[in-house]
Each structure stands twice: as C-alpha cells, then as structure tokens.
Amino acid sequence: MLRGFYTAASGMIAQQRHQEALSNNIANANTPGYKADQATLRSFPEMLMHQMGSKNIPTQHNIKYPVSNPIGSLSTGVYVQEYVPNFAQGDIRDTGITTDLALVNGNMPDETGSIFFTVQNDAGEVRYTRNGNFTVDGQGYLVTNHGHYVLDQAGNPIQTDGMEFTVTPEGAIQVNGQNIPLGIAYTANANDFEKEGNDLFNGEAGAVPADATFTIQQGFLEGSNVDSMQSMTKMMEAYRMFETNQRVLKAYDESMDKAVNEIGRIS
C-alpha cells in the first residue's frame, strides 16, 4: 500500500512541474525570440513482481522447496526528466525600428540545427540568443534589451554610434562606410543548448557552414513560438491528471486509516 502512496505522489509532482513549464510558456507568449519549453516525462524503473511460495515433494520425508511465480511488472512512478526547448521558427512581425533584427532560418544542413545571435553576458562569456530586440547604449554599442553586448564575427562588441545604421540580409552592419559582420553562430543540435535566463542560451556553437542559409530582416522581430491555445489545453490536461492522482492518493489514505484504526483495533 505504501508503494501506491509514492506512485500517486510522484504523478502529482510531475504534473505540477509540467504545469509550471506551461505557465512559463504562456507568460512569455509575447517575448521576442522565446522558445517554448517542453517537459519530458519518464517513468521510474519498473519492479518485477513474483508470488513466493513453496511446493511439497511427495517423498518419504515430505520435502518442501521454494517456488516463485511471476505476476507481472509494477510501475514505481513518473518524473519530469528534463525541459527541452522547442527551436521552431517563430512568426516574423514588422516593428519599423532599425535596431530590431530578426533571424529567419533557411535551409539547415542538420535537422536539429539552428542559428543564433552571439552576445556577451554579464560575466564576459559568450552566449547565444534568438531575441533580436536590440538597442544602442549610451556609449554607442549595440546591446540586447537586458544590456548584453551584441558581438561581431570576431567576438567584439559592435560600435554603431547611434541608431542610424543598415543591416544587410547577409548579416553585415553598414555604419560609417564600414561593413561589420554580425556574429551569427550555428549549432548542429540545438537541443543540447540550455536556457540561462534573459533570453540567453549556453552551449557549443561555431561558424555557419557554407550549406546553411539564413537572412536577417532589419526592422522586424521574431516572435515567441508559444501556441497559447495549445498550451492552455495542455494545462487543463495536466490539471486533470493531477486531480486523478490526488483522488488515488486520497483513496490510499482512507484505506490506510481503516487498516490502522478499524482492522487493527484491539477490542
């Protein structure tokens, strides 16, 4: 009976964490470049149940020997293994702001491949983002909306001296008669990237291969790829599953109460 407590409780915890991921997705439905998290559920290892007993051997001394009859497997619960971002392209919308840049995926050589803007976090480390909602800081550097430097192809902050600049579809910033190539990075497996907050991803990425195609649209932003209606439906499903496990847990609790206070009572 105690095993049933643990199994039902693990189901409730898993659905609660699934609900939290869906809630976070809906909260970021309007965040530029946001990639929806997908919770992956996995069951704990199953236990093989056996019926233990004994069998008599019809001999003079009536020998008994143990026997084990397999009953079947018993699930031991479920848990959220990890959160995997969905890197599908979000909708592209026109903003008319020159510092807004949208990465538009073309043909990727790898099915799970994707491209990112290269930025520098507060610790000076290289990170990646799909949020092109950029601006220019007081020193004239191109930065993200969280104040992180946007890097060029050489890994240096980009000096624009203001908001009047042009970005070519190939990713070159034209300012003061110079072409500064944006730092666009490519990874063959975006699923290996980890979210760090502030729209940043951490992972291994390199130069864009020759057979990968993309364009950059100035004055546009890539929207979130969260499907709000689908997320709401999944939230309702997670809630119903939570309720089901809750009722199972309550039934086990009532059975345990009877076993302790009624069956086990000494009169």
From TrEMBL:
Transmembrane segments: none
GO BP annotations listed: bacterial-type flagellum-dependent swarming motility
UniProt entry keywords in alphabetical sequence: Bacterial flagellum, Cell projection, Cilium, Flagellum
Start and end residues of each Flagellar basal-body/hook protein C-terminal domain: 217-261
Gene Ontology terms: cellular component: bacterial-type flagellum basal body
UniProt family annotation: Belongs to the flagella basal body rod proteins family.
Protein name: Flagellar hook-basal body complex protein
Species of provenance: Ornithinibacillus caprae
Species lineage: Bacteria, Bacillati, Bacillota, Bacilli, Bacillales
